[in-house]
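Now for one protein, fold included:
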Amino acid sequence: MQKTFPQRPWYKERWPWLLMAGPAIAVVAGIITFNLAVQSDDGLVSDDYYKRGKEINRELRRDEAATQMGLTAQVLFDPAMQRVMVTTTSRTGLPDRLRLQLIHPAQDDYDQTITLQRTGPNAYAGTVKPASANHWYVRLEDEGNQWRVQGEWKPQEGAGVVLGQPALEKVE
């Protein structure tokens, strides 16, 4: 005599549920990843990246113009007073107003543009917001975008940075 087992519906068996769990988890994880991507824009890519890429030659001319002027600048930050002081040296005269940019390497929300006013011969000052990052690109330029000097500032290494300092040539 043959023994028969009662037939159970498929949804009461464990194997179909285990087999469906993998694709179901993948769909839920995909939805969560999509929501995170939409809600947390990191702002790393500029909107006009193609245009900016084509302008690289014009940007290099500004660096060359600063080199021909013999322009260097010492930038000192005073976070307690929220001030920035800039001392320049140049073979030519400089305007009464300069523009200083603090550029965060990854988050453009932290970027600052400071207008510097002449306070004396070769001296400029401006107001800066407290900077919380550990690494900044610093750019000093005229308001007509004819020249620029730039460098990197790491606040943990000191309160200042020298911009436009010519690189030492290798001695052979």
